[in-house]
């Protein structure tokens, strides 16, 4: 029989409402924690500010994704229609001045590439897909997708201390405080 | 109903009460109730009515699409009723019809999201599913209309064996780009929107195959705000990308017609007219499938009469726009002095296809006008009936545009009456079966209402809800000075 060693992942505390979660998040932020997160069944607007998070960087990537799509659309049409295989149908010329006829594919590819950038950029930023996580071992965490509000503070955080963090969570109104462990 | 009369005159600045918003979720349901009810749709045994609808739909899909396409491919496109002149008959009518159905889904998801219309949350999931399935039905027709379907890859922008490239100046190639992009983006939008709800189902499952599958598709979602923050931005971006996309897709479809020189098609009104028609037909289809689903699964507290009322109003608006477009086409044909254009319209109205024209006019222009009356918008039988009529009418619109124009071009020798063949009819009915089958499977396996977003519309979801509770006089606004001048002689008070 092998013994599994356990490592502390962090504390999980439940809050009774979105408002309580919001106020508690402000206090955790002000206490200087970095490795922590608020879990809720739906996105709570304004919680980014309460947690001290910056605006998502996703649009930055999507801009370049869209530009790539636009360029792909243009060069695909231009190179094939003007350089490689100039097709003259209904007397429409084959040169750079036919570019308005290429606008629909250019537009569609801009949207398509942007959409893919949204999808894959989002997954990268969320660090998903990830099929297991220490929080899934919790006895109550499954309620986060139903009707519960949680704050999880990780042990990786330099401010974390087994007693101090627990009492902080109690102080700011957390209940059902649970120590989450993961297998090492 | 006394609102303006309850002005607060105690302070210096008089205050006007703000009109109360109608509730989007009725009967004060809790988060847990919402989860239970929506997940219950797919966790409980399906009602008998589901089987009653599913089995015939699946059978029709198998015979119509499966059998119809088998016969078509093994024999040749000659089994369709297309002729030398009407080389685009039912296949393209059906293609444009199904693509149009999809538009309401994207409209509800994207445009109503950008304009912060929170009532969309109860219906957007089903409408997006409708989009995906409708575009799948639509795709069948052009793919098989090319004749040799195994050559359909010629549509993709890659050179064929002879080094020949596609003609990028052709609206038909634009169509390929538009429709395939539309399908892909709609699929991403639908799937990403569903990830948190799939996680909800995963967390309710007992360990087993179901939990594994929902677990894989929910990607390990944990509902952390660091995830929500990016997720919300992604959703906003997709909405912003889909909004011009949905308007472009039906515009590009209309270019298939408008860039030709054929009388009756060569009109600049086509793009906006097609887009309005698509939204019109799409909303009718949302109502056609959501009113029964709401009844069967008891979703009345989530999809309220307000939602239905709003959709009926959109049908009224877009139906009127479509009616305006029909009349404007006639006016332009008359006013431009284009002889052939006028002849084409005369033929539409008085020729052998006039029955289709008047059917279209009745279903699309006259029938929705009943929604001017509130009592009619509140009668589900009327709403359902009008939605069905609009579905039929929008099909006839495409039939009228395509067939009556192609049936009589310039050579009198070709002026033969167009009849669809049995194969045409079989395949179209088959796609209706396929659409219903896919939709019923969606109801069975996926959350049909956006759980996370519906929860978000509850008043207690506002992080400042408790603060508002502490200040019970919220909801009053200081009256602007110019408003006081408007009713300078003391307003007649009706204290009843």
Along the chain, the helix and strand elements of chain B come as EHHHHHHHHHHHHHHHHEH
Shape annotation of chain A: elongated
- Hey, roughly how much beta strand do the residues of chain A contain? 15-25%
**Main beta sheet strand tally, sense and closure of chain A:** 4 strands, antiparallel
Helix-strand makeup class of chain A: alpha+beta
- Helix content range of the residues of chain A, please? 40-55%
Helix content of chain B: 55-70%
The number of helical runs of chain A is 5
Derived from helix and strand composition plus strand pairing, the structural class of chain B reads mainly alpha
- Residue runs with pLDDT of under 50 for 5 or more positions of chain B: 1-10, 490-496
Order of helices and strands of chain A: EHEHHHEHE
Quick one: overall form of chain B?
globular
Number of strands of chain B: 2
| Rg over CA atoms of chain B | 26 Å
Main β-sheet, spatial strand arrangement of chain B = 1-2
Largest interface: A-B, 71 and 69 residues
Q: What value does the average pLDDT of chain B take?
A: 84
Rg calculated over all Cα atoms of chain A: 26 Å
What is the distance, rounded to the nearest whole angstrom, between the alpha carbons of the first and last residues of chain B? 10 Å
Q: Order of strands across the widest beta sheet of chain A?
A: 2-3-1-4
Keywords (chain B): Cell membrane, Membrane, Transmembrane, Transmembrane helix
Membrane topology (chain B): Multi-pass membrane protein
Family (chain B): Belongs to the NrfD family.
Transmembrane segments (chain B): 48-72, 92-114, 126-151, 171-192, 234-253, 273-293, 314-335, 355-373, 380-406, 426-446
């Amino acid at each position: 029989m092998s013994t599994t060693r356990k490592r502390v992942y962090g504390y999980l505390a439940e809050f009774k409402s979105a408002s309580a979660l919001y106020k508690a998040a402000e206090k955790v932020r002000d206490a200087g924690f970095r490795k922590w997160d608020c879990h809720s069944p739906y996105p709570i607007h304004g919680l980014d500010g309460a947690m001290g998070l910056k605006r998502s960087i996703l649009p930055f990537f999507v801009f370049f994704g869209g530009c790539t799509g636009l360029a792909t659309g243009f060069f695909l049409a231009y190179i094939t229609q003007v350089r490689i295989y100039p097709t003259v149908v209904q007397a429409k010329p084959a040169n750079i001045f036919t570019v308005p006829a290429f606008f629909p594919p250019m537009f569609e590819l801009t949207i398509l590439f942007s959409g893919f950038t949204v999808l894959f950029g989002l997954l990268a930023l969320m660090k998903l897909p990830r099929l297991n996580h220490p929080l899934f071992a919790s006895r109550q965490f499954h309620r986060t997708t139903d009707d519960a509000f949680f704050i999880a503070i990780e042990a990786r955080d330099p401010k974390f201390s087994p007693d101090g963090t627990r009492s902080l969570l109690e102080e700011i109104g957390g209940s059902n405080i649970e120590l989450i462990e993961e297998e090492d | 109903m006394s609102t303006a009369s309850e002005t607060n005159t105690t302070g210096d600045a008089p205050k006007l009460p703000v009109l109360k918003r109608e509730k989007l979720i009725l009967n004060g349901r809790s988060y847990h109730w919402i989860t239970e009810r929506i997940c219950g749709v797919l966790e409980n045994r399906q009602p008998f009515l589901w089987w009653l609808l599913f089995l015939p739909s699946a059978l029709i899909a198998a015979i119509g699409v499966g059998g119809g396409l088998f016969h078509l491919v093994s024999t040749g496109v000659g089994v369709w009723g297309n002729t030398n002149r009407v080389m685009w008959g039912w296949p393209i009518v059906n293609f444009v019809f199904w693509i149009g159905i999809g538009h309401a889904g994207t409209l509800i998801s994207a445009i109503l999201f950008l304009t912060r219309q929170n009532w969309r949350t109860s219906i957007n999931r089903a409408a997006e599913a409708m989009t995906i399935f409708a575009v799948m039905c639509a795709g069948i027709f052009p793919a098989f209309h090319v004749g040799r379907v195994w050559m359909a890859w010629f549509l993709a922008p890659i050179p064929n064996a002879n080094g020949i490239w596609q003609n990028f100046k052709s609206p038909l190639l634009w169509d390929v780009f538009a429709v395939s992009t539309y399908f892909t983006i709609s699929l991403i939008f639908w799937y990403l929107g569903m990830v948190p709800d799939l996680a909800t189902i995963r967390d309710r499952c007992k360990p087993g195959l179901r939990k594994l599958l929902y677990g894989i598709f929910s990607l390990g979602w944990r509902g952390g705000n660091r995830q929500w923050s990016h997720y919300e931005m992604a959703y906003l971006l997709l909405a912003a990308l889909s909004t011009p996309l949905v308007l472009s897709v039906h515009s590009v479809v209309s270019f298939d017609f408008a860039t030709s020189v054929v009388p009756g098609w060569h009109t600049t009104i086509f793009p906006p007219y097609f887009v309005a028609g698509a939204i019109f037909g799409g909303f009718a289809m949302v109502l056609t499938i959501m009113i029964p689903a709401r009844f069967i699964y008891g979703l009345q507290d989530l999809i309220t009469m307000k939602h239905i009322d709003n959709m009926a109003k959109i049908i009224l608006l877009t139906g009127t726009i479509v009616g305006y477009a029909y009349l404007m086409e006639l006016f332009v044909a008359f006013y431009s002095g284009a002889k052939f254009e006028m002849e084409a319209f005369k033929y539409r109205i008085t020729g052998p296809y006039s029955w289709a024209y008047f059917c279209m006019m009745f279903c699309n222009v006259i029938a929705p006008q009943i929604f001017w009356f509130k009592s009619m918008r509140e009668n589900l039988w009327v709403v359902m009936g009008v939605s069905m009529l609009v579905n039929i009418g929008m099909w006839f619109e495409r039939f009228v545009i395509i067939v009556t124009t192609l049936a009589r071009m310039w050579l009198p020798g070709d002026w033969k009456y167009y009849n669809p063949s049995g194969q045409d009819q079989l395949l179209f009915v088959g796609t209706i079966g396929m659409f219903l089958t896919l939709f019923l499977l969606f109801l069975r396996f996926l959350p049909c209402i956006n759980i996370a977003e519906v929860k978000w519309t509850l008043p207690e979801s506002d992080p400042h809800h408790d603060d508002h509770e502490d200040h019970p006089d919220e909801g009053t606004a200081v009256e602007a000075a110019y408003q006081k001048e408007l009713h300078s002689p003391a307003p007649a008070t009706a204290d009843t």
